[in-house]
Specification:
GO cellular component, one term: membrane
Helix content: over 70%
Keywords: Membrane, Transmembrane, Transmembrane helix
Number of strands: 2
Oligomer: single chain
Distance between the termini: 26 Å
Subcellular location: Membrane
Number of helices: 20
Protein name: NADH-quinone oxidoreductase subunit N
Radius of gyration: 22 Å
Membrane topology: Multi-pass membrane protein
Length: 513
């Protein structure tokens, strides 16, 4: 028996390893955050960015290693005894938790490496890295939540550091304004979310997902329960930047430090979907929820409106960073197909379509984070924000521009990176589930997205420079972060098979398949 298999068996059976060690991906991030706070408390004025960025990156890679190891070992999965339930059933460790934890750790590592150069000479660096790790910790707990209470606490743990990170550039009016708007809309959405939880609790008498599902199947208060489900869906719409709670995203992404824009648009979005998948599949199960509460129709509407509005808005933008912000809203619309294309009885098809959405989020973590890190690189060089400002940039920085072209084409779904297969499997599984019209609308929107993504490539590689600019440095950290994202995006094209299989296996377990 291999070492990973032994580890999984020990965790599952309560042997030599205590069950709480199954949360090692979360604990690695939390301990890293505490270590960064300790360094900052000892030397609050430190600008030793190598130490801070290195500690953050190492902690992220350790978390990623645990996630990969446990996934390979089958920890919390059907082959080794099923999910591991912890702390009075508040948290659960299974394939979905481990899969999403790998996404969060990957994005956090790239952001930490790129921030080595981006934060050079700036104040409050210790706080920046500590807040990033605390937000990532909250995101992993969102993926592990097994009750509405732990889901809300985890969501707040992920959100509160994010507000501060968006407003991190304290002398930049745009950053502070973006942080304030993000906080105000976030406070409103949290109030809506927690009020929805209170209504569900009033109807069911429990916050545990399994108990909620059982009680909803017997309740006569269908109207109250329906309003509660609707308000909880609104809370998730905010976290995933879905319409109509998307207004904060363009402002926050444009005003925030570019690495944080990538972190929020990739990891934070994935965290919102992780907890939404778990809540609506387990707590509001289609097999148990009253007929009068059809949340699938709600997500079908959200998917169509979100992908359409996001793509059309992105096509009209003049600045690249704001275009990427609206593009991320459109991408959220694609992932919503993972909930919008579910059916009442076909558990295997449900697992396939939700798993395809999870796999798209995995690839999206690399290509979208890489795109925002490229924006961070141009900000470091002092290049402008508009498409025209990027004219002729490839002649000065061919490697970075080649990586950006890869990100753009992969986000559009062309067969140059993992984004091609992730969209293909997502739309194909929607068709197999009988929702061909969702797949058709997704394909049309993807074709539209090629227009504005190609504008970036055209400016960098085809257009002549409209003004003289000089690249005075090749920042190692930013280049390393971009190259890691580019290699990951490219390799996920031939290596997409294991990713989609792992994601669909994890998703199918939620449906009991």
């Amino acid at each position: 028996m291999s070492l990973p298999s032994v580890t999984a068996t020990l965790l599952q059976s309560g042997g030599a390893l205590p069950e709480w060690t199954a949360l090692a991906p979360t604990l690695a991030l939390a301990l890293t955050a505490l270590a960064l706070l300790l360094v900052d408390s000892i030397s609050p004025e430190t600008k030793n960015n190598a130490l801070l960025a290195g500690t953050t990156a190492v902690g992220s890679f350790v978390s990623l290693a645990f996630s990969g190891w446990y996934l390979a070992a089958g920890t919390g999965q059907s082959g080794t005894g099923g999910e591991i339930v912890l702390y009075g059933e508040a948290l659960v460790v299974d394939g979905m938790y481990l899969f999403f934890s790998a996404i969060f750790a990957s994005v956090a590592a790239m952001v930490a490496i790129a921030s080595y150069d981006y934060l050079a000479g700036k104040e409050y660096q210790g706080e920046f890295y500590a807040l990033t790790m605390l937000a990532a910790t909250g995101m992993t707990l969102m993926a592990s939540a097994n009750s509405l209470a732990s889901a809300f606490v985890a969501l707040e743990l992920a959100s509160l550091p994010s507000y501060a990170l968006v407003a991190f550039l304290k002398k930049n009016k745009g950053s502070v304004e973006a942080g304030l708007k993000y906080f105000l809309i976030g406070a409103l959405s949290s109030a809506i979310f927690v009020f929805g939880i209170s209504l569900v609790y009033a109807v069911t008498g429990s916050l545990l997902f399994s108990d909620v599902a059982e009680a909803l199947g017997e309740t006569e208060l269908v109207g109250v329960a329906g309003v509660g489900v609707l308000m909880i869906a609104g809370g998730f719409a905010f976290k995933t930047a879905s319409v109509p709670f998307h207004f904060w995203a363009p402002e926050a992404y444009e005003g925030a430090p570019a690495p944080i824009s990538g972190f929020l648009s990739s990891a934070s979005k994935a965290a919102g979907f992780a907890v939404a998948f778990r809540v609506f599949v387990e707590a509001f199960s289609l097999s148990a929820i009253p007929e009068g509460i059809n949340w699938v129709i709600l997500f079908q509407i959200l998917a169509v409106v979100t992908m359409t509005l996001g793509n059309f808005a992105a096509a009209t933008q003049d600045t690249v960073k704001r275009m990427l912000a609206y593009s991320s809203i459109g991408q959220a619309g694609y992932v919503l197909i993972g909930l919008a294309a579910l059916a009442g009885g076909a558990s295997s098809q449900n697992g396939d379509v939700m798993g395809a959405a999870m796999a798209h989020l995995f690839v999206y973590g690399f290509m979208n984070t890489g795109a925002f890190l490229f924006i961070a690189l141009t900000e470091h060089w002092g290049i402008g924000r508009t498409f025209e400002d990027f004219n002729g940039l490839a002649s000065k920085a061919p490697m970075a521009c080649a990586a950006m072209a890869l990100f753009m084409f992969s986000l559009a779904g062309l067969p140059v990176g993992g984004g091609f297969f992730s969209k293909y499997f997502l739309f194909a599984n929607a068709v197999f589930a009988g929702f061909w019209w969702l797949a058709a609308l997704g394909a049309i929107n993807s074709a539209l997205s090629l227009f504005y993504y190609s504008r970036v490539v055209k400016a960098m590689w085809i257009e002549d420079a409209t003004s003289e600019f000089e690249i005075r440095s090749k920042p190692v950290g930013l280049y390393a972060g971009i190259m890691i994202a580019a290699v990951g995006t490219f390799l996920l094209l031939p290596a997409f098979g294991p990713i989609i299989e792992t994601a669909q296996t994890a998703a199918s377990a939620l449906f009991g398949a």
